[in-house]
Specification:
Strand order of the largest sheet: 3-2-1-4-6-5
Low-confidence stretches: 146-156
Number of helices: 11
Helix content: 40-55%
Oligomer: single chain
Strand content: 5-15%
Distance between the termini: 22 Å
Shape: elongated
Radius of gyration: 21 Å
């Protein structure tokens, strides 16, 4: 299964983002804590290369804490402010405001020397689809300013949001890049639903996720589906899950679509465990 997805509206969104870059002081780049590097768009990294940057690894409630800490150290070594968040909860708001204040300190000091007062700090919230940008906007603003949804492509255009104090956030649509050179990256994007299930072969995607979990989290996989052992091949484990859950069709054949959909959904909901 070769994965490519770059709908036309993303080209338009990238142009709008390129135009808006010059209006902001900070890039708040959101990625998925379960697959940090795969869910960072290289084009967004390039667009904001001359701007201060905060990397938010969102959905940290679904990821392993020890792996989170290693990723945070990795990005901080590169000179980035890095923080973890569950954007559905408001308890990260103060931490984000503090991070914005930290990275904008030099800018505010330059303004003060020039006699510029009360000039807002402007930050662009950018990232791939379905990473939680609009949910973050709503959490930090305290009201439903941005449309949200558990699927890619909900935000269609740029939206400016004013926060308490002198901070303005620009919410932008999620964009991917035109070609996935590394299909391992593409699979990680699909596992975390940055790519629509509707354009994918879900049975194969579910099988690939099972194979990945057999490699990196076999104990969690066995515990969740009450398996006595992991099969020699991914298809063996997939069929064992189907039999344990009773996903049998009328002709006594396994319902592979239901198995795949179940494993994908339970991974995305954190029911299999905290995995990076």
């Amino acid at each position: 299964m070769k994965i490519q997805w770059y709908p036309g509206h993303m080209t338009k969104a990238k142009r709008a983002m390129s135009d808006a870059i010059k209006l902001v002081d900070i890039i708040i780049e959101m990625a998925d804590a379960r697959a940090p590097e795969a869910t960072r768009n290289p084009e967004i990294m390039e667009l904001g290369s001359n701007k201060s940057r905060i990397i938010i690894l969102n959905k940290a409630d679904l990821s392993d804490e020890s792996a989170n800490n290693r990723w945070a150290s990795h990005y901080k070594e590169q000179g980035y402010e890095c923080m973890f968040m569950d954007s559905r909860k408001k308890n990260g708001v103060n931490a984000l405001i503090k991070a914005i204040e930290n990275v904008s300190k030099d800018k505010r000091e330059r303004d003060a020397k020039r006699g510029i007062k009360n000039r807002p700090v402007r930050a662009m919230v950018a990232g791939i689809p379905n990473v939680g940008k609009s949910t973050l906007i709503n959490s930090v603003s305290g009201r439903a300013m941005a449309k949200t949804g558990n699927k890619p492509g909900v935000t269609k255009g740029n939206q400016w949001i004013k926060l308490k104090g002198q901070v303005e956030l620009l919410d932008t649509p999620g964009i991917l890049w035109p070609k996935f050179e590394d299909q391992e990256v593409a699979l990680n994007l699909a596992f975390t639903r940055a790519i629509k299930d509707e354009i994918l072969d879900v049975e194969t995607l579910g099988l690939r996720l099972i194979e990945k979990l057999m490699e990196i989290a076999p104990d969690l996989l066995m515990e969740r589906y009450k398996l006595e052992s992991i099969g020699p091949q991914g298809i063996d484990t997939m069929e064992a899950i189907g039999r344990k859950r009773g996903f049998i069709l009328g002709n006594r054949e396994l319902d592979y679509t239901r198995i795949a959909t179940t494993v994908l959904n339970e991974f995305r909901e954190g029911k299999i465990g905290k995995i990076v």
